Amino acid sequence: MTQEEPAIAVSGLRKAYGDNVAVAGVDLEVRRGEVFALLGPNGAGKTTTVEILEGYRHRDGGSVSVLGADPQHADKAWRSRVGIVLQGTGEFDDLTVSEVVRHFAGFYPNPDDPATVIRRVGLGDKERARTHTLSGGQKRRLDVALGIIGRPELLFLDEPTTGFDPEARREFWDLIRDLSAAGTTIVLTTHYLEEAEALADRLAVIAGGSLIAVSTPQALGDRQSAPATVSWRTADGTVERKETSTPTALIAEIATGFGGEVPGLTVTRPTLEDVYLTMIGHR
Amino acid sequence: MTALTQTPATAGPLALGLRQGGLEIKQFSRSREAVVFTMAFPAIMIVIFASIFDGEIGGGVNFTQYFITGMIATGLLSVGFQSLAIQIPAERDRGVLKRLRGTPMPQWVYFAGKVIMVFVVGLVETAVLLAVSTLFFGLELPGSGARWLTFLWVGVLGISACTLCGIAFSSVARTARSAPAVVTPVALILQFISGVFFVFTNLPTWMQQVAAIFPLKWMCQGLRSVFLPDSFAAQEPGGSWELGKVALVLGAWCVIGLILCITTFRWTTKRDG
User: Any transmembrane segments, and where (chain B) (predicted)?
Assistant: First the structure.
């Protein structure tokens, strides 16, 4: 397997639950070493797609290759190269943080040092705490610790920072950047656009079971090329709005019509969030 | 796979299984309610029964000698069947199973952990029960090596059947909350019809026949051959201890349980798809 081969290659992926089509023909490629964010509203097919890649669900059609293998037939060796942080936390109520992490380390052929990983996710002072005494954010950190204890080549993070305070979120971002710098490929699903913008090399927007955009966060949210909204007051006093990718030309045209100043003129560019909401709204 | 594929887990299968068993026992021993109820319940039951029926069942043999068999069997049923059929859906709901499924842990390791836990707890709980009964209620322990041997294989086969059926039954409950409601009546009915609370041969014949389908009746019968004089064998429904049949039925339930485990076990909840 060469480094040039993508970490994940998906084409024509389809999955339906009865009459409800969850994923309707997704093509996707995640390169080795990149942080790839998957965005989309609830019910868009995000989790289904990710869980097919993780080997939890069987697909109805299309082809999927993750680290060169079909996750549907995941074996032990493949599992040891993939780290998974699920959306829900599976708790081990009566065990301590250290016991759980050490136990999971034993499942992997080449695990990281448990104490180091616990410190790394910011649970150093909670090592001897029973997991049921942890706060929501701390439990999430434990989830992350269990996801990375096996030194995965590929790490799936499903809404990892839900319930984090802003400071914890920043620390978590630093951890992800560290892992990425060390060569780990990361697939992230999130509802936070600033998180995708901060972490992702590329992102994909999924809606209605299809990919509607794949790009870098800058290009997706780029104000320079995204259509701007120009609004002004017409002669009879009503507000006119026009969306255009050439605002300068439009304003020049309107200005000519007015023979000078345009009353109530505004030009607005969409934020990343606006771009995203427009995309999923137009489906 | 390719050359980059790493070598399999360094820990051998035996070590993996034992580690998982150790983890299960640790979790059990830290859950105080579980320890107290599992360990003390059969002992409390024998206190109640020995106090109500403090006479003789006949031939100079006191009632304790009969009821101990039901209490041992019911203890193994509760450790193997009830606790697993309730605990596993809870772990499934909490996402513990899904998370384990995402690691390189071989599936059987999870079951091995449960089996080890059940055997250890069952052993300790039976020892407590025997100690209490011997000390306070005049129980006479088996007097020959042959009887201890029967005790051993009936116990092991019985708890194996219960454990496998418990794991299989864990797929019946859709949620953790419904599990006790689904499992408890099954155990309770089995106890009533299998001669745990009453002398088996006093039960209506049809009830005896229904009970004979399930393992608990045969566990009790096998244990009666351990704790009652051989002269009592004639009073059994079949006119003898029928140990061959005991082994056959319990063995069959192990096979049925195992097949159901393999074919129906779910690592994720229904809503996970």
Answer: 34-53, 65-88, 108-136, 148-169, 181-200, 246-267
Which is the CATH superfamily of the domain at A8-220? P-loop containing nucleotide triphosphate hydrolases (3.40.50.300)
Q: Which two tokens stand for residue B272?
A: 């996970």
Q: Are A158 and A87 in contact (CB under 8 A)?
A: yes
Interface predicted TM-score (ipTM) of this complex, two decimals:
0.84
Domain ranges of chain A: 8-220, 228-281
Which of A118, A107, A11, A122 is closest to A64 using CA atoms? A11
- By DSSP bridging, strand A228-233 and strand A154-158 are unpaired
Give the nearest partner residue to B10 out of A54, A68, A109, using CB atoms: A109
- The whole-number average pLDDT for the span B188-214 is 90
Distance CA B39, CA B197 (A): 19
| CA distance, residue B213 to nearest chain A CA (Å) | 37
pLDDT in tens, B83-121: 999 999 999 988 899 999 999 999 899 999 999 999 999
Give strand ranges (E) for chain B. 56-58, 61-62
Distance (Å) from the alpha carbon of A44 to chain B's nearest alpha carbon: 15
**pLDDT of B4 above 90:** no
Using the predicted structure, report yes or no on whether residue A192 has a pLDDT greater than 80.
yes
Using an 8 Å CB-CB cutoff, list chain A residues near B101: 56
Q: Which of B2, B5, B19, B27 to mutate: most A Cβ within 10 Å?
A: B5
Above 50 in pLDDT, residue A23?
yes
Q: At what angle do helices B179-193 and B145-169 cross, to 10 degrees?
A: 150
Q: Residues, chain B, total?
A: 273
What pLDDT shows up at residue B272? 57
Q: What is the pLDDT of residue A93?
A: 79
